[in-house]
Amino acid sequence: MTSHPTFHTKDISRDSFLITGGAGFIGGHIAEYLLKNGAAKVRVLDNMVNGFEKNLAVLRGYPAFEFVEGDIRNSDTCQQACKDINYVSHQAALGSVPRSIKEPLYFNEVNVGGFVNMLKASVDNNITQFVYASSSSVYGDEPTLPKMESRVGNCLSPYAVTKKTNELYAQVFAEVYGIKLLGFRYFNIFGPRQDPDGAYAAVIPLFVKAIMKQTPAYINGDGEQTRDFTFVDNAVQINIKGMLTENADAVNKVYNVAVGENFSVNYLYKICKEYLQSDFEATYREPRQGDIRNSLADISLARKLLGYEPTMKFEVGLTDTIEFFKKMYSNA
User: Fold this and answer.
1) Catalytic positions
2) HSE of 263 in the Cβ direction (CA atoms, 13 Å)?
3) Virtual CA dihedral for 220, 203, 263, 279, nearest 10 degrees?
4) Which residue in 285, 288, 227 sits closest to 258, CA to CA?
5) Nearest to 45 by CA among 10, 6, 14, 16
6) How far apart are CA 189 and CA 45, in angstroms?
7) Cβ contact 43:18 at 8 Å
8) Quick check: 154 and 164 in contact, CB under 8 A?
9) For the chain, which residues score pLDDT lower than 70?
10) CB of 16 within 8 A of CB of 41?
11) Does 16-188+230-260+298-311 carry CATH code 3.30.360.10?
12) Most C-beta atoms within 10 A of its C-beta, which of 85, 106, 251, 328?
């Protein structure tokens, strides 16, 4: 596995952090980074719907770790979770476009209602800085590549609407209550510990599992759609830099979180096959409703204001990720 760099210079040995959704994929990696780097307290709030005990097991060895099992839809839970906390990284959300089309009310309750609960609790508890997960899905039908933060189109799914609404609420809370907020539009984050087994699992673990077990590997549409696949370390980096930045120009903005390169799904599948030394072919099916065709991010704003620099390019991150899932399925 590739070694992980340090993304901050500030002494965090007296700082306390709350990671919502910290038993999940991205939140778990953020929490682990903070614990490894000596944060005074790292509290995780998760309702364990999309979180996993095995992700918490990675964190439980650190004395600074605290776990609160609870739901962001409960405002009292959010208030308690924010008590005696300096920084919040809000990763708790439901994250699937097709699932949001099936369950729009549920997505609104969690992603919008839960988000507002967390904002209010952060204001009430005088949180220093609050960062949150938005999504590249907010670009919707805006065709321009690369995607720039200032140009968004019409949303194409209920999921996209919830993330766009988060950004609007953040803007209003910053203006009305004076809280410092930064939003991150994630572009196809992938990496070790991503859930490979859910009905709406991410494509990379699904491909590895299908190739290894010789079960159908589905590609939606013609497979020539492109994505700015972004290794999870890059998402960790922006969360750490966002929480700790003292650059006044950097707060109350949204940022693309990506590498600034895009690859087709067909190419991704080809690399997975080559790495696993397999000639197992993919099965093509209908394009997915609500999906955008091409995705590529302009990351110059994050570079300029937060000093963000992707440390892990697609191919390197992909080999780490395939290796993780290969081991997992070999031992299963």
Assistant:
1) 159
2) 17
3) -80
4) 227
5) 16
6) 21
7) yes
8) no
9) 1-4, 199-200, 332
10) yes
11) no
12) 85
Q: Rounded to two decimals, what is the model's pTM?
A: 0.95
220 beta partners? 285
CA 308 to CA 320: how far, in whole Å?
21
What is the rounded CA–CA span in Å between residue 251 and residue 247? 7
Under 8 Å between Cβ of 130 and 115: no
Task: Read off the pLDDT of residues 148-176 as tens digits, 9 standing for 90 and up.
Answer: 999 999 999 999 999 999 999 999 999 99
115's tokens = 């988000």
Q: Which residue has the tokens 């000639």?
A: 279
User: How close are the terminal C-alpha atoms of the chain, in Å?
Assistant: 20
The residues near 99 (Cβ < 8 Å, ≥ 6 apart) are 107, 159, 199, 200
* Contact yes or no for 156/143 (Cβ under 8 A): no
Closest CA to 234 of 114, 314, 144: 314
